[in-house]
Amino acid sequence: MSEIVRIEHANVRRDGRLILKDATLALDEGEHIAVVGPNGAGKSTLLDVIARNIYPLALDEYKSVLFGEEKWIKSELEKLIGVVSERNAAFLNTSYKVREIVCSGLYSSLGFDFHHRINDDDWIRADEELRKVGLYDKRERVMNTLSSGEKRRIMLARVNITKPRLLLLDEASSALDFPSRASLRRLISTYTEKSTIIMVTHELNEILPEIKRVLLMKDGMVIMDGRKEDVLTEENLSLLFGERVHLSRSGEIYSAYC
């Protein structure tokens, strides 16, 4: 397998405070990983560094290599990296139609502008992705009339229209009820054969069965990185969250509670 991500010694400062501290991550193509930690741990910031939405301090030891290359044109990188995040609210609550939102993912835009040249093949690709997420019948609906679960499925269709090699999921199931979270988890699992997935969550039952590696973050630092069964223990999670955590497991699905 070829290495798809290498981040070394990333430090991010915001408002005079380090919110990411000396973070290092290497990931092979096809090696899916979950990033777990409490709110404010630096999980989303790490994803932003990987996607080059933000840049760490320009220290000599910092390195970012994506798909074997250090230098990228951002528009080209966006075709290879798909991001699903709660921060994509502009796409979730717009008055654009579902089909338009999915198709505009080809251009990394919200809807279309005068310079976009949409052809029949583009619409066919959008319809194919809508069928995959089970929402082809709602392709003419306006986005802001859909349920939260439907909107997340539309976001998956949108980012996957470019067939990204890397899929970054930042709390992709947040605010959904547990049946909707389970349904979305099963859908996301279908993408693991085509894309490498980095999933940020603090809900263990969202972690895909296909994910075999877990990284723990706290206070902006990576404090543990290893095999899922070794990392996800009551002792480790209690230290991570600062409270006694009880852990249960059903097959490859983990759950935790205090």
How is the secondary structure organized here?
Layout: E1 3-14, E2 17-28, E3 33-36, H1 43-51, E4 63-66, H2 74-77, E5 81-85, H3 89-92, H4 98-103, H5 120-132, H6 148-160, E6 166-170, H7 178-189, E7 196-201, E8 213-218, E9 221-227, H8 228-231, H9 234-241, E10 246-250, E11 253-257
Helix pairs in contact: 5-6, 6-7
Query: Termini, distance in Å?
Result: 39 Å
**Which blocks of ≥5 consecutive residues have pLDDT under 50?**
none
The value of Rg in angstroms is 18 Å
Question: How much strand?
Answer: 25-35%
Give the oligomeric state: single chain
Count every helix, treating DSSP H or I runs of 4 or more residues as helices: 9
Helix content: 25-40%
Strand order of the largest sheet: 5-6-7-3-8-9
Mind telling me the CATH class of the domain at 1-76 and 197-258? Alpha Beta
The CATH superfamily of the domain at 1-76 and 197-258 appears as P-loop containing nucleotide triphosphate hydrolases
Largest sheet: 6 strands, mixed
